[in-house]
Amino acid sequence: MSKLAVFDFDSTLMDGETIDFLAAELGLKNQVASITERAMAGELDFFKSLMARVALLEGLHKSRVDEICSALPMMPGAQEVVSGLKARGYKVVCFSGGFRNATSPAAKRLGLDADFSNVLHDDEGILTGKVGGDMMFGFSKGDMIVRLQHLLCIDRSHTLVVGDGANDLSMFAHADTRVAFCAKPILKKEATHCVDVKDLREILKIV
């Protein structure tokens, strides 16, 4: 029987928020981080907050973005949880409201089966402050998990989801095992399990 595990990326598989690392390059980390914080707490519409944050990245060189993204710190236990779940028969994928520049190298590094995220638009190698992709809205993760479940013929009883913020709520609605990882209160309320230590290996005790 196939099973599906879907992880959020920022502050779940990766220790931090990709966009904060990028904003730091422009001296805008605090400004961007405060918008991220409010979005993850469910205080701001995800799409609007994403557009506002990405607009602040205008002018950054794509080559520098790729450099920063290839060196992002993985969460303790990330490698072990992916290997452990795959050994238990799970397809392991990542959904991120962040960017492919970050999720694709991480997917390769961790051995994920797929990553779904957004694309930062650039013009001749310079970011334009625009973004598009698979994960632009508050409902995107829920929408995508249902499509994957249909494609892989996996139902919610064999689906595990792991996240930390409000934009993970939509995927929590379609899984019977829901792990809030070092999460905001809004997500903990909908979880079946809460992990409050920064160690993804704790999830292997749940499955």
Write the layout of secondary structure elements.
Elements: E1 3-8, H1 18-24, H2 29-40, H3 46-55, H4 62-70, H5 78-87, E2 90-99, H6 100-110, E3 114-123, E4 126-133, H7 140-152, E5 159-163, H8 169-172, E6 177-181, H9 185-188, E7 193-195, H10 203-206
Parallel strand pairs: 1-2, 1-5, 2-3, 5-6, 6-7
Antiparallel strand pairs: 3-4
Radius of gyration from CA coordinates: 16 Å
CATH class: Alpha Beta
Shape designation: globular
What share of the residues lie within helices? 40-55%
CATH topology: Rossmann fold
- CATH homologous superfamily designation: HAD superfamily/HAD-like
Side-by-side strand order of the widest sheet:
4-3-2-1-5-6-7
H/I helix tally: 10
Order of helices and strands: EHHHHHEHEEHEHEHEH
Structure, briefly:
The protein has 207 residues and is an alpha/beta fold. The chain contains 10 helices and 7 strands.
Explain how this protein is built.
The protein has 207 residues and is an alpha/beta fold. It has a single domain, classed as HAD superfamily/HAD-like (Rossmann fold), CATH 3.40.50. The chain contains ten helices and seven strands. It has a seven-stranded mixed beta sheet, with helices on both faces. β5, α8 and β6 form a beta-alpha-beta unit. α1 packs antiparallel against α2, α2 packs antiparallel against α3 and α4 runs parallel beside α6. The chain is globular. The two termini are 14 Å apart.
Keywords:
10 helices, alpha/beta, about 210 residues, Rossmann fold, seven-stranded mixed β-sheet, single chain
